[in-house]
Amino acid sequence: MKTRTPRPIALSVVLALLSGLLVGLTFTVTPPASAAPVTDFDPGNIISDAAMYDARSMSASDIQRFLNVRGTNCVPTAGNTCIRSYRESTPSRAADALCRAPYAGTSNESAATIIAKVSVACGINPQVLLVTLQKEQGLITASAGKSAYTYSRALGFGCPDNVGGWCNPEYAGFANQVYSAAKQLKRYAANPTSYSYRAGRTNTILFHPNRACGSSSVYIQNQATASLYNYTPYRPNSAALAAGYGAGDSCSSYGNRNFHLYFKAWFGSPANKAAPFGVFDTATNRAGTSAVRLQGWAMDPNTSEPIRIHVYVNGKAKLSTLASSSRPDVEAAYRNGAAHGFDVEVEVGAGTHAVCIFAIAASGGNNPQIGCKSVTAQNLLPRGSFDAVAAEPGALRVLGWAFDPDTQDSIRVHVYVDGAPRASIAADKSRPDVGRAEGRGDHHGFDTSIPVPAGHHRACVYGIDATGGANSLLGCKGITTKNAPPRGLIDTASGAGGNVTISGWAFDPDAAGPVRVHMYVDGAPRMAVTADTHRPDVGRALKIGDHHGFSASVSATTGTHRVCAYAIDTSGGPSASIGCKNVVVSNKPPIGNVDSTTSTKAGIITMSGWAADPDTQNPISVRVALDGVPIRTLVASVPRPDVARSVGLGPDHGFALDIPSRNGQHTVCVTALDSSSGNPTSIGCRSVTVLDSPAVGALESATSTAATLSSSSAPSRSRIDVAGWAWDADLLDATTVEVLVNGDLAATVTADKAHAPLPGVPSSAVGFTTSIETIPGAYEVCVRAIDPQAPATPLGCRKVEVPNSAPIGILDSVTATAGGATVGGWAMDADSSGSLRVHVYATDAAGTRFGTPFTADQRRDDLDRVYQNGALHGFSGKLTLPPGPYTVCAYAVNYPSGPNPAISCNAILVTS
């Protein structure tokens, strides 16, 4: 238990060896590079309790394979042994309160066997012992054999840090060291308050035996971590962590750092909890049934309490149960209590099935599968009796019993009438006689009535297999039933608002579904409705279900009317009258008032008022007209408590509206629409003067685009693109905008396009854009909003420079002739489809230039096909020249102005 300088890890184990040697056990074999800093070391949780005390993690053979792989490069020498080959004879040790299982000593035991037997005896994870052997003496990955002296102090137990390397001889010997260290770890846990470092509180922990190196406060989260500190009482400083497996500084300690690194590299993070585990022992079919008996055990090493298991059959969840039956053999092996067994039955149905069981972690996390088995079960068909069929008014009644031998639960039966499925019911009524005779419980009876029309019928009943197998016919019987007429009643009848309204209920004893009800007014058919609204009172009284209510309303003139209702027979028999009532219908015209009309904002009329129909408390609609033209219909539903108090029809009858309008004098009129007839009643007119409001807006952008020519599209002329917004509160329609270029009207557009929200502007449809084609040059673009009743409102001006596009062309041919040369080619300008001027110059060796102008107006259809800019762009002609060599160049004259680029040059020799 000393602070030691770090040892390098032997990295010579190759992955090829692992695939052949580590069968049945998984090791993490690649440690971090020695220089990689340690970033996941938690000083308060170096190892979890579950990992520390998981004595089952490795068997002796697992440990031996591990030592063979990790020590593959170890070379023994005379008197020095590699740990994979180390052996010694061991004494027997009796069980005690700390190591609860005895240790049976044996001669010539291997190091792997010693470690495994100590782990089981003392309940310590063998991985903890392997890692401690490495961090204390480097025994696991040593490249050379070690002496007996090294093995005698293998875990540094009884070797204090402050006595210069002395070790207590009481604990000497490899097996003694392993046993004593494991027992000490259990002693720390059994007597936590007797040692310096304790879980569940903040502890002061030194960085190094030299107290001048300082200390830090660490909240230790669990007993396992506290035990490590009691065993090696220092924590790594930042230099030690930054060095990875390497050396830090003079104040660095490495024991607990290396424990973390080796454990993680070899076995995964020591701070993670261990997963549940267990064994799925057997799966057997109970003879003559489709039930399967499942036996086994499962436990979570993080608790001694029983955990749940989940059973899946063919991939589908079938059962969740607690593994809590007594398994003394499991307790003897794992020392974690005996209540971890399970012995359950599940119904799986006939056939071969895959049954898998999962152990469920006590506190969440990984839920591993502990086994899968294939099992074959037989299926027994349902049994039962169709005892009787009886005729009822408009129905037939079937009685009997049914059960499935594969389950104690009630099953379903299906009833067919005249070959058609009519009912699916549970055979769960009490039949003690069946229970006594069959021994399957009492609740297997069925008794149900099925509506049918009058006449002869054949009823058949089937028992439905509980596990999806074949269904059993329980019998068929014939019966003759009579038609029962529909029944019902008109509960209420009233007249109001120009309408007659009735409500009531109706049903047909011959049918389970709803019936139709026909409504007659003064002997004339007016409406047909379905009696299917909720009437639980009728259902309770007549035992026919709750959905047989109806309500119907039709318009009627003012006066007294005779209203009758008839229930329609579902089987085609005579309809049944369910009542008639006299109803008085009255209709009063709407009432209301236009309370106010004002114009406090330019271009807006604000009005308010109320309207109600004395025939109803519901809100009614009002129609608003401006200067005799209807402009809006709205519902008068704004709360008006004053109207409720004065009229007594409820509060929701107010209305309010803002009306955009031009400036000047206007008349606003409102009519209220009758709730039943829709006829309008005027409730008032008011005059109002609307204030004038100037237009607002802005010229937001004016940009130019140069003309372009392309062989893949029509030419694009130079243009100015204008955008902005405009809004006039006086106008009902969108504002008209004029665009002026250098003072001349160039475009008129409507500001009705979508625009980002603007402060004080209620509409988003106030944007405008337009494009103005023009020739290159400097321009001033101005925009103004047009008001039909006022001067235009300027919205802004912008300076714009439209760039010039250079002409293009080719001097196709230059041919020397006697006394001159002939030339030919083409030229055009993206700024125009018109013909350009072309200047052709011939320059002799002395620099003398001979120039000839041409007009590129000859037809060239090939150019029009390519550039879509017209065909009149070709030129050709003759140059008169003295004999000698010349350079002939053609220049296209830019439209409308600008540099004249050379479009091509050729060299020729003119002869006499």
Automatic annotation (TrEMBL):
What does the UniProt keyword field contain?
Signal
Regions of compositional bias (Basic and acidic residues) in chain numbering = 428-446
Signal peptide start-end? 1-35
Query: Region Disordered: which residues?
Result: 427-450
| Taxonomic superkingdom | Bacteria
Protein name, as recorded: Hemagglutinin
Species source reads Sanguibacter suaedae
